[in-house]
Please model this.
Amino acid sequence: MLQPRIPTYIVLGRIVAVVGLSLAIALAIFFVLAGKPVWAATAAVLAIPFGAMIFLIERAPGGASTEPGKEHDSTA
Model:
């Protein structure tokens, strides 16, 4: 049986969230090693919205935590 297709906005949202989170964390590590704690903290704080984005996208209708066939069921 074929799995339902994942909507394009979910796929694009996942890509943006993962790339943004990875970049922000990498910059935070780089700035820690460079001895710039304020820049490191700023980069770490910028990672928070991307982490929240991943959390919200996974719970969106059609996301990974949605059971197949129950995308539009409001009782789930």
